[in-house]
What we know:
The chain folds into two domains: 14-190, GAF domain (Beta-Lactamase, 2-Layer Sandwich); 216-410, Nucleotide cyclase, GGDEF domain (Alpha-Beta Plaits, 2-Layer Sandwich), CATH 3.30.70. Helices cover 42% and strands 26% of the residues. It has helices at residues 14-40, 46-59, 85-92, 103-110, 128-134, 166-213, 216-223, 246-252, 255-275, 301-314, 316-319, 355-365, 376-382, and strands spanning 64-71, 74-81, 114-116, 138-146, 149-158, 230-244, 279-284, 287-292, 328-343, 349-353, 372-375, 386-396, 400-410. A hairpin with a 5-residue loop joins strand 9 (328-343) and strand 10 (349-353). The longest helix has 48 residues, at 166-213.
Amino acid sequence: MPLFAGDPSALLSPEALRRELGQAQDLLSATDRVVHALGRSTSDFSDVFDRVVESARRLCRADAVQLFLAEAGGFRLAWHVGVSDEYAAFVEARPLGSGQGSLVGRVAVTRQTEQIKDVLADPHYAQREAQALGGFRTIIGAPMVVMGRVVGVLSVWRARVDPFSQREANLLTSFADQAAVAVRTVELVRALEARSAELAAAHARSERLLTNVLPVQIADRLKDREEVIADRFEGASVLFADIVGFTGLSARLPPEQVVRLLDGLFSRLDQLVDEFELEKIKTIGDAYMVAAGIPVPRADHAHVLARFALAAREDPATRNLTSDTSVQLRVGISSGPVVAGVIGRRRFLYDLWGDTVNTASRTESHGIPGRIQITDATRALLGEQFECTDRGVIDVKGKGPTHTWILQDERAPADGAEPVLPVNDPARPPPTRSNT
Length: 436
């Protein structure tokens, strides 16, 4: 009984059997190397293709191996071994299309392994210049198929007329399949990486949106699924700024100009908030609310908010709101305990409540255009480091008689004296320590 179905020959001789066994072991070894390369190469063809072309050349007893990958303009030579640099440069510059004029083109059309026993005797073979540079006569190619698409062609050649056997054709087909697996693996990995990048970008956009609405520390607590976010701060300062005369101005201006005016002013105030490391709370119409000492407590909350107010007063964006001199910025500041928290479900809002907030709002609304009005509580915290003018007692709606001050400027330190800095001011040097 013959060893192979359809083979009428006698039993294989021991020598032939050893040869077949050795070839099978070579194939298994080559396949094992490719599989290991596949396991290591998740986003790069190089290692897999290096092993594929090396194994195909050796086991198919070929003089050279070429691996073409499909691109928009045809099949481009991507990997090769056993060819001259001149030949490789020539072929790389000329992608091959589908059709009878090349072996790659034929494989692309039939999606089957194709062999040209002698290219010089084939009337349809048109790659004469490439043949002259490469010097091949017998050439065979196998398709690399992924999801019904021919994504590449693996071909080997011999410099003499020596057709490849069926066994060698099967080996080449097997290596082409392995190369196709590599292509598919990389496609999947790259698709996954692209999707991951999209998700990361979307997450980053969500993070930016969340931190534009909420302080970073509060956003982190919200992401940790803290149900109720509410805190009491015993020491904080709150500032309200309002454009005096804006209501009449907005009635006279086109809507686009109104929005541009507010956007220019509030964008500049946002920059100052970042520079002074404060917390913008919200805008209400043409009013701007900012606080210091929340959500992270700081001992210098009154000082830093006063500096912010002075910088805003002198900034060109606030001094030159319009050509109408009656339109000016009016500022009010108060200091004391506040309650802070997040409200809302569809649109989150980090807000402040308490008498300090109400007083700051009233101090602004009863202030003087172009001036910074502060309460006794804020004045006491500022000490002698800031120059303030006593405005006296004014009648504040909802609070009655209230003593207020006008913040003029920050005093320069006396000659040779160090400036008085708050305890937690970054510019304050650390205390010296005695060695005794």
